[in-house]
Automatic annotation (TrEMBL):
InterPro entries: AAA+_ATPase, P-loop_NTPase, SLFN_3-like_DNA/RNA_helicase. It comes from Neobacillus bataviensis LMG 21833. Residues 267-419 form the AAA+ ATPase domain. Coiled coil: none annotated. This is AAA+ ATPase domain-containing protein.
Length: 616
C-alpha cells in the first residue's frame, strides 16, 4: 500500500504551498482508516521539505514520480520516500530514501546496530544503511514487480540524515563495521545533499516515472523464486526437520486441504493441530511453509512469542547468511489491518499465546488475534496446547479457534499429536509431570531415560545445569522483574536469601537469550523460554507454588506471584482461582524445555518433599 503517489512537480507544489501534511493525513485516513499522530505529522513537515530541496537541485523531469509512506507487504514498516524514473539509457529505476532527523550517533555492539537518541532516550537501533538495504531486499523478495524479469525495474537504496553534521574525524556511522551496508546503501549527511541530488539525477533524470510507480504499487505479493529455493534448501536434507508418523499425518492434512482449495473452491479451511510440549509442532510448521512456498502460495509463519520467533529464525538460517528468510516470520499482531483472504496460508505456532490485541495496537471491535488470522487467510493452521496458557491475556484455545472459524463459515479439521520428541522421547516423564501437577489423578512412576533430579540448593542447580551441562536456568514468575541496571549490570532480581543466591532475569534486550553465550548466568522467565528447547534446563520453583501436607494438595500463593500483567483478578468467594491453572501451566512448560534432562530446586520444602516421594 502506498499512501502518496504523485509526480515530482506535484510533490514540490504540495511542499511550497505547505499542503503536504494535509494531503498525507487525508490519504492515511482514506486508505488505512487511521488518524495520523502529531509526532508523525511533525516528522513529515520536518523531513519532506528537505527532500524537496534535493529534488529541486536534481532538476528532474516533471513526470518523475514520488512515492511516500509505502507500507511494506504484511508489515507495519513503511518506506519514507521513493522516487521513480528512467536514466539516460532508458533503464527503469526506483530509489528508496530512508529519512532520519538524527543529529548524532555512536557505534554499538551487534551487526548493523548503532546507538542514538530516540523516543526521549539513548537507545540501540539499526544503522540507517542497514534499514534502507533491508527494505530494498524485502521488496525484492516479496513484490513480484521487483524480482520479475518482465518489468526490469532496478531498485536502489540510501539514507539521508538531513540534520546530521558528519564528524570530520572518525564519524561513527561510517565505521568500517558497517562497510557492507554502506556499500549497498550510502548515507548522506546535512552538507552532502548535493551528492544525493547528483545521484538521484543520474538514475531518474529522464522521468517517465508513472508506469514504474504503478507497477510497484500494483505488483503481486508473493515470495521470489530465490527465497522459495532458499527455504527449501535449508529444510530438505536436514534431519532435524524430518517428519515422523503422526507429524506426517498432520502435514498431509494441511497439504490436502490446500490442494483442494487451489483446485476447485474458495472455501476457507481452519486446521487445528493439538499437541503437548515436544510433539514436533514447529517441525511440521516449517515443512508446511517450505511446501506452500514451492506451491507459489502466499504464506507466513506466525509466532506470538518474540524470543521463540528469533531463535526459530536463527535455527533455520544458521550460518547460511540467508537473512531474507527472516521476513517470512511474523508476530501475531501483524494482521490487524490485513484485507480478507489476503494470504493463501497462515501458519500460527504456539497459538495458545494469541491475545485480544497486540502491544500498542488499536483493537478492532469484535476481533481478536484469532479472528484476524482466520479473516486474513484462506487456510489457517493453528498449533495449540491448551495447557500452555500462562497469562490472563492468552485467549488462544481450541474452543476459541473453533468459535471464530464457525463465524467465517470455515471448514474445521483437527489433528492430535501424541508422540514425544523432547524429554528424551519420554512420554512417561510428561505423564508423571502431569500427575504431580494434578492434571491427571492417576499416579505414574518416573521411568525411562530422561534425566530428572531434585537438588537441595540453587547453587547446586547452577553447577549441575549451567557449569556441567551448558544448559539454562529458568524460574517461575515469583520474583519482581525490575529491569534495573546497576553499574552496567542487570540487577539480581531472583534472590533466595537462605542460600545467599542471586542472579538477574534474562536480558530483555537479548531476544536470543537462550542461545547467546554471554547470557548463561541469567535466569529465563516463562515469556522468554516458551516454545524453545535446550539439552538441559534447571527450574527454580518459587513460593508461588507449594504443597499443603495437611490437605495433601498443591497450593498457589497469590501474593508470591509477581507477574502483574498475567495475574487474573481474585475470584469471588467459593470460586476456583484461575491463577491455579496459570501457575501449574507455567511450571509444566518450564519443566518440559529440556531435551535430555531437567533438574529442579523447590523454594517450598513441602513441595520438594512431595515431588521427591513421587519421583522414587
Amino acid at each position: 500500500m502506498i499512501i502518496y503517489n504523485e509526480t515530482s512537480s506535484s510533490f514540490l507544489n504540495h511542499i511550497y504551498e505547505n499542503k503536504i501534511g494535509y494531503v498525507l493525513k487525508k490519504n492515511v485516513l482514506a486508505k488505512m482508516n487511521k488518524v495520523v499522530s502529531g509526532s508523525e505529522l511533525r516528522s513529515w513537515e520536518n523531513s519532506l521539505p528537505q527532500m524537496a530541496k534535493v529534488l529541486r537541485d536534481a532538476d528532474l523531469k516533471e513526470d518523475t514520480h514520488v512515492l511516500l509512506e509505502y507500507k511494506l507487504p504484511s508489515s507495519e514498516k513503511r518506506i519514507d520516500f521513493l522516487v521513480a524514473g528512467q536514466d539516460e539509457q532508458g533503464t527503469k529505476n526506483a530509489i528508496i530514501i530512508e529519512l532520519k532527523q538524527w543529529q548524532k550517533a555512536k557505534v554499538a555492539e551487534g551487526d548493523g546496530i548503532v546507538r542514538t537518541f530516540l523516543g526521549g532516550r539513548d537507545r540501540e537501533t539499526v544503522h540507517p544503511a542497514y534499514q534502507a538495504s533491508s527494505y530494498k531486499r524485502y521488496l525484492q523478495n516479496f513484490n513480484e514487480s521487483l524480482y520479475s524479469d518482465s518489468t526490469s525495474i532496478q531498485l536502489h537504496s540510501c539514507a539521508y540524515l538531513h540534520n546530521y553534521i558528519m564528524a570530520s574525524m572518525g564519524e561513527p556511522l561510517l565505521d568500517k563495521r558497517y562497510s557492507s551496508y554502506l556499500q549497498e546503501s550510502p548515507v548522506y549527511f546535512q552538507f552532502s545533499d548535493r551528492d544525493l541530488a547528483k545521484n538521484i539525477r543520474k538514475l531518474v533524470s529522464k522521468g517517465n516515472g508513472m508506469e514504474i510507480a504503478e507497477t510497484i504499487e500494483n505488483g503481486k505479493i508473493r515470495p521470489s523464486k530465490k527465497l522459495v529455493e532458499t527455504v527449501g534448501s535449508l529444510i530438505e536434507g536436514n534431519e532435524e526437520f524430518v517428519l515422523l508418523d503422526e507429524q506426517k499425518v498432520a502435514y498431509e492434512k494441511v497439504v490436502s486441504k490446500y490442494n483442494q482449495f487451489k483446485a476447485q473452491t474458495d472455501q476457507k479451511h481452519v486446521i487445528i493441530i493439538k499437541g503437548g510440549p515436544g510433539t514436533g509442532k514447529s517441525v511440521i510448521g516449517l515443512n508446511l511453509m517450505s511446501y506452500m512456498l514451492k506451491s507459489k502460495a502466499y504464506v507466513e509463519y506466525i509466532t506470538p512469542n518474540q524470543a521463540f520467533r528469533e531463535v526459530l529464525r536463527k535455527k533455520l538460517i544458521g550460518s547460511s547468511g540467508h537473512v531474507e528468510v527472516r521476513d517470512l516470520f511474523k508476530g501475531s499482531a501483524s494482521y490487524v489491518h490485513a484485507p480478507e483472504n489476503y494470504f493463501d496460508v497462515l501458519i500460527c505456532d504456539e497459538a495458545h499465546r494469541l491475545k485480544e490485541q497486540g502491544h500498542m495496537k488499536k483493537k478492532i471491535e469484535g476481533e481478536n488475534q484469532v479472528t484476524q488470522i482466520i479473516r486474513s487467510s484462506r487456510i489457517s493452521v493453528f498449533f495449540i496446547d491448551d495447557f500452555q496458557k500462562i497469562s490472563k491475556k492468552d485467549i488462544g484455545s481450541v474452543k476459541e479457534v473453533e468459535k471464530e472459524a464457525a463465524r467465517f463459515g470455515a471448514d474445521i479439521h483437527t489433528v492430535e499429536l501424541e508422540s514425544q520428541y523432547r524429554c528424551s522421547g519420554s512420554g512417561n516423564y510428561i505423564s508423571w509431570l502431569d500427575s504431580i501437577l494434578n492434571y491427571d489423578q492417576e499416579a505414574f512412576k518416573l521411568e525411562g531415560d530422561f534425566d530428572f533430579k531434585l537438588v537441595s540448593s540453587p547453587q547446586q542447580l547452577k553447577e549441575e545445569i549451567v557449569d556441567k551441562h551448558g544448559g539454562r536456568l529458568l524460574a517461575g514468575y515469583a520474583w519482581d522483574w525490575t529491569k534495573n541496571v546497576v553499574n552496567g549490570k542487570l540487577a539480581d532480581d531472583v534472590v533466595i536469601e537462605e542460600h545467599n543466591f542471586a542472579l538477574p532475569w534474562n536480558d530483555p534486550n537479548r531476544i536470543d537469550w537462550a542461545i547467546h553465550p554471554e547470557c548463561a548466568n541469567q535466569i529465563g522467565c516463562i515469556h522468554t523460554v516458551q516454545g524453545l528447547e535446550m539439552d538441559y534446563v534447571g527450574v527454580i520453583i518459587g513460593k508461588d507454588l507449594g504443597f499443603d501436607e495437611d490437605t495433601q494438595k498443591l497450593i498457589v500463593r497469590r501474593d508470591e506471584f509477581k507477574d502483574k500483567g498475567a495475574k487474573p483478578a481474585k475470584p469471588k468467594k467459593g470460586a476456583v482461582d484461575p491463577l491455579v491453572d496459570l501457575v501449574r501451566n507455567t511450571y509444566r512448560t518450564l519443566m518440559t524445555r529440556g531435551m535430555k534432562g531437567c533438574y529442579v530446586y523447590c523454594c517450598d520444602k513441602g513441595l520438594e518433599k512431595y515431588i521427591q516421594e513421587r519421583s522414587k
